[in-house]
Write a structure and sequence with these properties.
- There is one protein chain.
- The protein is mainly β.
- It has one domain: Porin, CATH 2.40.160.
- The chain contains two helices and twelve strands.
- It is globular.
- The two termini are 15 Å apart.
């Protein structure tokens, strides 16, 4: 998909602003679903990108729609590049789903992110992203690796396909998929469960972006996730296979 047309050669930044409607499980493994409207915000200044709701991926196709927060390109050599970033993680509350009531909340935290990307050609790439809780709020660490293939079906429409997996350390797994012994049979009817580090999930995704005018971008996607290993065996994994759908519209301008 072509970049936004320039309004002036002096502009050194690009931005996007819009909204999307998202439907998906309340948490990974939930049988309950929710639908919400999310803001889509993106701002690119030099090698820095600020993104929320996938807005950054409308400006910089180095970014994955999930790369929220502040991202900086750190290094590039031929087809290999590194980027680093920070984002706020909202955690998880017991009120998010009935089955979570009585379990400890997962606190909000600040996450650091380091991504390594290799482009095989203009269409295919491999990405691996390490995300770490920087405030020791029991958020742990994850490593997500995915292969992407993007192609134009017209001069105004791009399709992206992705497949990958996520690994998680024991801290992340116990916070999001575990049931502590202090809560089991006391504040929740769930049995105690202490997962270890390992495979968390696999995922597939399809994304579409199309220019409806020089400035307006219509975008949407479908994702499918399967919990794996100890995450799938968790009593919280009521529905270990799940999907999400989204559609949005954003205005982008101007380099």
């Amino acid at each position: 998909m072509p970049p936004p047309p320039p309004d002036s050669p002096d502009h050194g930044f690009t931005w996007s602003l819009g909204a999307s409607v998202v439907n998906g499980p309340r948490y990974a493994g939930s049988a309950e679903r929710s639908t919400g409207v999310r803001p889509v915000i993106g701002l690119e200044v030099g090698r820095f990108t600020l993104s929320s709701g996938g807005g950054g991926s409308l400006l910089d196709f180095d970014l994955d729609p999930r790369d929220s927060g502040l991202t900086a390109r750190l290094f590039q050599l031929d087809n290999f590049r590194l980027s680093g970033g920070l984002r706020l993680d909202g955690g998880r509350k017991g009120a998010d789903d009935p089955i979570l009531r009585g379990l400890p909340d997962v606190e909000r935290t600040l996450r650091g992110r380091l991504s390594a990307i290799y482009d095989f050609n203009k269409q295919a790439s491999l990405r691996s992203t390490l995300s770490q809780d920087l405030l020791d709020k029991q958020g742990g660490a994850t490593l997500q690796t995915s292969a992407r293939y993007e192609f134009l079906i017209s001069s105004r429409t791009e399709i992206g396909l992705a497949a990958g997996f996520t690994l998680a350390d024991s801290t992340y797994m116990r916070s999001y998929m575990g049931v502590p012994t202090s809560a089991a049979g006391v504040t929740t009817a769930l049995p105690a469960y202490r997962p270890g580090a390992g495979m968390h999930s696999t995922h597939l995704g399809l994304e579409v972006k199309t220019l409806v005018s020089d400035r307006w971008v219509l975008f949407g996607g479908v994702g499918y996730q399967q919990l794996r290993g100890d995450a799938r065996r968790s009593p919280l994994a009521v529905k270990p296979d799940s999907y999400n759908v989204s559609i949005g519209l954003a205005y982008r301008c101007c380099r």
